[in-house]
Design a protein that fits this description.
Elements (H helix, E strand, L loop, with lengths): L8 H17 L5 H31 L12 H33 L2 E3 L7 H15 L5 E4 L13 E9 L9 E7 L7 E3 L9 E5 H5 L10 E13 L13 H12 L4 E7 L4 H11 L6 E4 L7 H5 L27 H7 L2 E5 L5 H12 L3 E8 L7 H11 L3 E6 L7 H13 L3 E3 L6 E2 L2 E9 L2 E9 L11 E8 L2 H15 L11 E3 L3 H17 L5 E6 L5 H13 L2 E6 L16 E6 L4 E2 L3 E4 L6 E5 L5 H5 L1 E7 L3 H15 L5 E4 L5 E3 L10 H28 L1
Parallel strand pairs: 1-6, 8-9, 11-12, 12-13, 14-25, 17-22, 19-20, 20-21
Antiparallel strand pairs: 2-4, 3-4, 3-7, 5-6, 7-8, 10-17, 11-15, 15-16, 16-17, 18-25, 19-23, 21-26, 23-24, 24-25, 26-27
Helix pairs in contact: 1-2, 1-3, 2-3, 10-11, 14-15, 17-18
Function: Catalyzes the reversible transfer of the terminal phosphate of ATP to form a long-chain polyphosphate (polyP).
Cofactor: Mg(2+)
EC number: 2.7.4.1
């Protein structure tokens, strides 16, 4: 039965989030790092519901009943996911209350309720409420003349049950009201520190507000106050074929996201049955979509909290990315790239080099044009500032901004408008396809003619996430790469069905077939008695066609090592099917985001980097690039990266044939964290670069 060969992608994603949660439980991590991992699991789960669960619910609502590749109907998937997420959220709160909070207490950090405060603390709370909270709070009563309002997505609210003490006749009726906890208020508030004490006390703002809500409802008795939080369908539904202006349509859809259908209601466990029933009715929530939680809602607030300066000793020191030794204090970045292809390994090597590349191009009088794709950029992007400067300096600047980058649409719209105002030619993606490839093209007039400089990457041009995600980027000035990237930019900005690439492969036209050819070649080599080997590192592996090809390769005897951070629908170690396949997953300080594809090819060792995972959406519904790394020194670096990653014994989990992930048995093995290893390696190379520069300066000084 085919379905037994595949793991449901949504279940696989939840398994990934469990691996992140495992890091929150792991006492080998410092306590604030554990709190960070807990916050990440909460943020992940919010997005999972807004997109994946919402999508399944949409399928059910329109009567779609086709089984997924693993054999589950949408109704069966939803039931399984609701059960798993109920358990996961319970485990999140158990992790917080039973594991992390006790360790925080040991470090003299406490979260207090109002009733636990001393007199000084209660005076502070009253003053804070009246002067900081009261002016921005808006109580919303619900009655016949004031219907239940539209509550915001993923926002914490208080639900308040009231009794009218001034009714002229005896009135047994309870009144309901809600109160938004505005995001302009700090969610976790530091309480005054006692003189000479090392104890740090904190209170959640809703716990500070609750005792004083009677001041918002004079003449009423407050009978009950509880938190609730709603998650809504956050997937944008845009009819691109009918949209006259994609930018306008997406701006409208972003607003609609705030008011999408309710798909999950979180409440505190001590909420009365009457209040729960009322909320469920008003929000149109069924029992399976109700989550009763033991503690303050919205654990994502701990991401900001754990980053406070007073906790520096309770988390691992932040790693500072270092300039690659090949680019350390270079005077002419174009000369360095002309000399040979260059590779950057982020975040170990600084993304600043990519920024410097665009900045150098923006002010270089010999540069004629700059073209770049942008998928997700930071709120204060130095890359975009450089592109704006380039346009102002008279360069021809073309920027392909993907407006449909989920949850970054608003930010991308802002930047797109700024780029247009500066004189850049801005292209807003393509109908039906997301532009997900990562590439920069700089056209420069030199003494021997026009030369094209190219940067191709596996990750976004985002200076913030480049310090948090592992990614790879390659610079090249080789003509065939420049020719291909020029052609691809022209294809994206104009009309073309070009597929005769010299170096790169492009989804959705040629990339899938290129992967199939490479896998088939390994199969043929094994059949001929040669060695066959594939190593592939990516974020997700859920494409049915690719998985079937890998099963075919394994059955032929090809050795396959997969490094898949997140979703993986393939099952390794199945007798007669995938016994030559291993699946590794690494969850560590940095998010593993790079995509590397290695094929032994009779010792030629073909290595490709890509913006694409092995997912149907990447191979069929996105513009993606797959590019070969041909410089032998760079291939050596990439093989080294794969080798060290596969040797990780500290942060790696291995998937079993059942889909379960287990930690590596460390007995008799070297303890190695690949991320720590690459940090130390980058530091050593940086020191070599500094010493080389000092030596050069001393020689010149003599």
């Amino acid at each position: 039965m085919k379905s037994r060969l595949f793991i449901n992608r949504e279940i696989s994603w939840l398994d990934f989030n469990y691996r992140v949660l495992d890091e929150a439980y792991d006492k080998c991590n410092l306590v604030m790092d554990r709190l960070k991992f807990l916050a990440i699991t909460a943020s992940n789960l919010d997005e999972f519901f807004m997109v994946r669960v919402a999508g399944i619910m949409d399928q059910i609502n329109v009567g779609y009943n086709k089984k997924s590749v693993d054999g589950l109907t949408p109704i069966e998937q939803l039931a399984t996911l609701n059960s798993m997420t109920q358990e996961m959220m319970a485990r999140q709160y158990t992790c917080l209350s039973k594991s992390i909070i006790p360790e925080l207490n040991q470090n003299k950090i406490f979260f207090l309720r109002y009733e636990e405060l001393d007199e000084e603390g209660k005076d502070f709370a009253l003053h804070y409420f009246r002067h900081e909270c009261y002016p921005v709070l808006t109580p919303q009563a619900i009655d016949n003349s004031r219907p239940f309002p539209l509550v915001k997505n993923n926002q914490v609210y208080l639900c308040i049950m009231l009794h009218d003490t001034e009714a002229k006749v005896k009135d047994e009726k309870d009144y309901m009201a809600i109160l938004e906890i505005p995001k302009v208020l700090d969610r976790i508030i530091a309480l005054p520190k006692a003189k000479g004490s090392e104890v740090l006390n904190y209170i959640f703002v809703e716990d500070l507000i609750s005792p004083f809500v009677n001041e918002l409802f004079t003449g009423y008795d407050v009978k009950q106050v509880n938190e609730f939080r709603i998650t809504r369908n956050g997937d944008l539904a845009i009819d691109e074929d009918e949209a006259e202006d994609l930018l306008i349509e997406i701006e409208k859809s972003i607003q609609q996201r705030k008011w999408g259908a309710s798909i999950k209601l979180e409440v505190t466990r001590d909420m009365s049955k009457k209040m729960k029933k009322w909320l469920m009715h008003e929000l149109e929530i069924v029992e399976s979509e109700l989550y009763e939680l033991k503690g303050n809602l919205d654990l994502t607030c701990f991401m900001k909290f754990q980053n406070r300066s007073e906790f520096n000793d309770l988390r691992e020191p932040r790693y500072t990315s270092l300039i690659s030794n090949e680019f350390y204090e270079v005077e002419d970045i174009f000369e360095v790239i002309r000399e040979k292809d260059r590779l950057l390994h982020h975040p170990y090597q600084s993304f600043q080099t990519v920024v410097d590349f665009v900045r150098a191009a923006s002010i270089d009088p010999e540069v004629l044009a700059i073209k770049q794709t942008l998928y997700r950029v930071s709120g204060d992007s130095p890359i975009i500032e450089a592109l704006i400067q380039a346009a102002q300096n008279g360069k021809q600047v073309t920027v392909l901004v993907e407006l449909k980058a989920r949850f970054d649409e608003a930010n991308n719209i802002i930047w797109a408008k700024k780029l247009e105002q500066a004189g850049c030619h801005v292209i807003y993606g393509l109908v039906g396809l997301k532009i997900h490839c990562k590439m920069i093209l700089v056209v420069r007039k030199e003494s021997d003619g026009i030369r094209r400089y190219v940067h191709l990457g596996t990750g976004n041009y985002n200076d913030v996430t480049a310090g948090l995600y592992t990614d790879l980027g390659m610079f090249t000035a080789k003509e065939n790469y420049g020719s291909d990237i020029s052609t691809l930019f022209n294809l994206l900005s104009g009309y073309s069905h070009y597929t005769l690439w010299k170096k790169i492969e492009v989804a959705p036209k040629t990339m899938r077939n290129a992967f199939y050819i490479a896998i088939d070649r390994e199969i043929e080599n094994v059949i001929m008695g040669e060695k066959g080997k594939i190593i592939a590192k990516m974020n997700s592996l859920v494409d049915e066609g690719v998985i079937n090809k890998l099963y075919e390769a394994s059955q032929a005897g090809v050795e396959i090592q997969l490094i898949v951070r997140g979703m993986c629908s393939l099952k390794p170690n199945l007798p007669g099917i995938s016994e030559h396949i291993t699946v590794h997953s690494i969850v560590g300080t940095f998010l593993e985001h790079s995509r590397i594809y290695y094929f032994y090819n009779q010792g030629k060792e073909d290595i490709f980097l890509s913006s694409a995972d092995w997912m149907e959406r990447n191979l069929n519904r996105r513009i993606e690039t797959l590019f070969p790394v041909e410089e032998e020194s760079l291939k050596k670096k990439l093989k080294h990266i794969l080798d060290i990653t596969l040797k990780d014994t500290i942060k790696t989990r291995l998937m079993t044939e059942t889909g379960e992930y287990i930690r590596i048995d460390k007995r008799g093995k070297e303890l190695l964290s690949c991320q720590d290893y690459f940090c130390k390696e980058a530091e050593a190379e940086f020191e070599q670069a500094k010493n080389r520069t000092v030596l050069k300066q001393n020689i010149e000084g003599e």
